[in-house]
Design a protein that fits this description.
The structure holds two protein chains of two kinds.
Chain A lengths: L3 E4 L2 E5 L4 E7 L5 E7 L5 E7 L2 E5 L2 E6 L4 E6 L8 E8 L3 E3 L3 E6 L1
Parallel strand pairs in A: 2-11
Antiparallel strand pairs in A: 1-3, 3-8, 4-5, 4-9, 6-7, 7-8, 9-10, 9-11
Chain B lengths: L3 E4 L2 E4 L5 E7 L5 E7 L6 E8 L2 E4 L6 E7 L2 E6 L8 E8 L1 H4 L7 E2 L3 E5 L1
Parallel strand pairs in B: 2-11
Antiparallel strand pairs in B: 1-3, 3-8, 4-5, 4-9, 5-6, 7-8, 9-10, 9-11
Chain lengths: 106, 117
């Protein structure tokens, strides 16, 4: 069974700071997803990665398949980025990390 | 209108009661999933269905059952609820056709908060 770890568990940042959230997994995968869970509970998919790097607005996601590691970066963070960010890996099924709770203070 | 809906959104029940959580989707996806989320833990898979006639147990299926009434509907039942089934439950869908291009994404419902007293 794939084990998915995320760091840090909790993160507090000041508005404008550059943020990095890390994800590591134990077994080879076909794809990795980054999800955002809003304070109200809703979950949306941000990125799907199988290699390299993707960028969407202020969000950048990278993956290193050999090292079994992915990072999610947020540039110029804003209070509306406050959420739980979840890493999920796709093998036979999806396996989810425990999430990183991000709070961005104004 | 939301593509994936769950009813009810909140439910309080007592130990031993049977309850059903319902999920409907308008995305036309063939695959549907039920997850539970507990504080500090990742989403865990309860059951999944790749087709109306294909139902599979997930990581934590004990105490739960499911029914895929149609491609668009997937229900989760707790036959005799117990307090440690108190959690946030999510339904999700995905499209197997996209999987072949490596672009499969899951789409989540808004979640159901269940409290078992």
């Amino acid at each position: 069974k794939n084990e998915v770890e995320q760091s840090p568990q909790n993160l507090t940042a000041q508005e404008g700071e550059f943020i990095t959230i890390n994800c590591s997994y134990s077994v080879g995968i076909s794809a990795l997803h980054w999800l955002q869970q809003h304070p109200g509970g809703g979950i949306v998919s941000l990125f799907m990665l199988s290699s390299g790097k993707k960028k969407h607005g202020r969000l950048i996601a990278t993956i290193n398949i050999q090292e079994k590691h992915s990072s999610l970066h947020i540039t110029a963070s804003h209070p509306r980025d406050s959420a739980v960010y979840i890493c999920a890996v796709r093998g036979q099924n999806f396996v989810f990390g425990p999430g990183t709770r991000l709070s961005v203070l104004p | 209108d939301a593509d994936v809906t769950q009813t009810p959104r909140n439910r309080i029940t007592k130990t031993g009661k049977r309850i059903m959580l319902e999920c409907s989707q308008t995305k036309g996806h063939d695959r549907m999933y039920w997850y539970r989320q507990d504080p500090g833990l990742g989403l865990r898979l309860i059951y999944y269905s790749f087709d109306v006639k294909d139902i599979n147990k997930g990581e934590i299926s004990d105490g739960y059952s499911v029914s895929r009434q149609a491609q668009a509907k997937f229900s989760l039942s707790l036959e005799s609820a117990i307090p440690n089934q108190t959690a946030l439950y999510f339904c999700a869908t995905s499209d197997s056709g996209v999987l072949q291009r490596g672009q499969e994404t899951q789409y989540f419902g808004p979640g159901t908060r269940l409290l078992v007293l």
